[in-house]
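From: lab user (bench 3)
To: helpdesk
Subject: output format question, protein + shikimate-3-phosphate

Hello, I'm new to running complex predictions and I'm not sure whether the block I got back is the full result or only part of it. Here's what I submitted:
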Amino acid sequence: MSATASRDLKTGGCLQGRVKVPGDKSISHRSLLFGAIAEGTTTIDGLLPAEDPISTAACLRAMGVSISPIEAGRVVTVEGVGLDGLQEPQQILDCGNSGTTMRLMLGLLAGRAGRHFVLDGDASLRRRPMRRVGQPLASMGADVRGRDNGNLAPLAVQGTTLRGTIVGTPVASAQVKSAILLAALTADGPTTVIEPSQSRDHSERMLRAFGANLQVGGEMGRHISVKPGATLHGQNVVVPGDISSAAFWLVAGALVPGSDLIIENVGLNPTRTGILEVLDQMGANIEILNPRDVAGEPVGDLRVTHGPLKPFQFGEEIMPRLVDEVPILSVAACFCDGESRISGAAELRVKETDRLAVMARQLKAMGADIEEHEDGMTIRGGRPLSGTSLDSETDHRVAMSLAVAALMASGPSTLARSEAAAVSYPTFWDELGRLHR
Ligand code: S3P
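Helpdesk reply: Thanks, we reran it on our side. This is the complete output you should expect:
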């Protein structure tokens, strides 16, 4: 991450215009990973040019995969090395701040027999739980070691031939599921992953498109089975805009008086659209324009205009569909008259930061009435918030959520460590400056 930067945040005014959010982070990681282990060339149009996917690309390059430079507006080319072509890296694989990179890499590398890998990350990633991946992989015979009994990075992976098996995951996590699916591609027999509820399904859609022998079944797509042996073939991937990045504009447009925004080319995969369900419950004015299908993913443009908002309640059931949007929804709740309640959100405590604690701390510093619970928060909205000195605490989604809160506060705010936004949305601050009137 670049040097730490404190930034003056905008307040008042309104947001108007059109914005095209950068590529979906989840799909960007996967297109690089699947392209790397396919036969032939993969092209990626719309790859997110941000720190997290750049970490994935750097790890793959260190294992001999040729990937063209990742720059905004440029189609990225990945020269696949095939399912067993990754070389043992000479150096530690640095996953930076990216949980998706580290967890998916574990699944990818565990089955590379005879090769040794060491994975590490920044201070935030070194605190995040990895046993949730290491344990199911161990049931396939994987050898993954780390601090805290294999839970914490740095992690060492000794590649070995894995057994196909049936694995139940303890949490609905697309990262855990995807790691197992990657490991399953080269196991010695079929593997089935069973999730407690369905998490985002980009891996399933894309692996199938690349040629994997993958079946989705069970109630609500919770059982995913892979038969090894199929060759993956390079694809031309088109990455839709990230609904998790669009979420900041959706909430800002709905909250700030006088706002009218069109957010173009947003991925609307039903495993990701929980934010739209909650905003609908709140009475937000959001229209889906020009719905279409792009490379196997539903996409649309979203128009949001300001209007009065009602408080909301949501819990565990919807969590996998909006897990990354809880910080910005906690901001929205501060500006609705009445009590909003978030429960079933304990996973937020093991993201880039403990997002329940960090959002409660930062919003309270502005004067918000928030009660933090083990698995969520109660927010009594409608009190005016005052601008103050804020801190992203190094978390990209916290940085952008606080920028939206500051727009609605009376008086100026500053944001320490604002550069964190570049993890998923490098142009966020420029876009905010451009849309703000
Ligand atoms: C992601 C899955 C989610 C999400 C993260 C990206 C992915 O994490 O929070 O930002 O790309 O698979 P979990 O799998 O831990 O829920």
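A quick orientation on your result: The domain at 25-238 is CATH 3.65.10.10 (UDP-n-acetylglucosamine1-carboxyvinyl-transferase; Chain). Let us know if anything else is unclear.
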